[in-house]
Write a structure and sequence with these properties.
- The chain has about 130 residues and is mainly beta.
- The protein is about 10% helix and about 50% strand.
- It has two domains: about 80 residues, RNA polymerase Rpb7-like, N-terminal domain (Dna Ligase, domain 1); about 40 residues, no CATH class.
- A hairpin with a 5-residue loop joins strand 2 and strand 3.
């Protein structure tokens, strides 16, 4: 697990009532995605900074307005097969975890992947039977 700063240039829709203040609309749109797994970022965005808003935008045929902006994300990266610990089905009390189909699991687990906003895991290991 690590934190990584990722700078991206993206198109974001602007609400018509916020055309005079696009940064507020951008902030509202991006805030909805904090602490939710993002395939494009490869992790959980924890915070962001609006680095810049380009002057040119795009108006689509349906009338929606998009602006191009530069965003700097701080992303929590969790690597598949990484060993972690969760309590009552949550990593750090924030991120939901399902371990071997148990959404209230407490203990160590290995990360298998992600499904929407849930970390999917399996128990760290199965004790091998002895021949005694």
């Amino acid at each position: 697990m690590s934190f990584e700063k990722i700078k991206v240039e993206i198109f974001i829709p602007i609400r018509p009532r916020l055309l005079s203040d696009p940064s507020t609309s951008i902030f509202q749109q991006l805030s909805k995605n904090l602490l939710r797994y993002s395939n494009s970022l490869g992790g959980f965005p924890m915070s962001f900074t609006i680095e810049g808003i380009f002057e040119s935008g795009q108006i689509l045929e349906d009338g929606s307005i998009y602006v191009n902006c530069l965003i700097d994300f701080c992303v929590l990266k969790i690597i598949p097969h990484e060993q972690m610990y969760c309590s009552n089905g949550a990593l750090y009390g924030i991120f939901p975890v399902i371990v071997d189909e148990d959404n209230a699991y407490t203990g160590e687990f290995a990360v298998k992947g992600f499904s929407k906003n849930v970390i999917i895991g399996t128990q760290k290991g199965i004790e091998e039977e002895s021949d005694f």
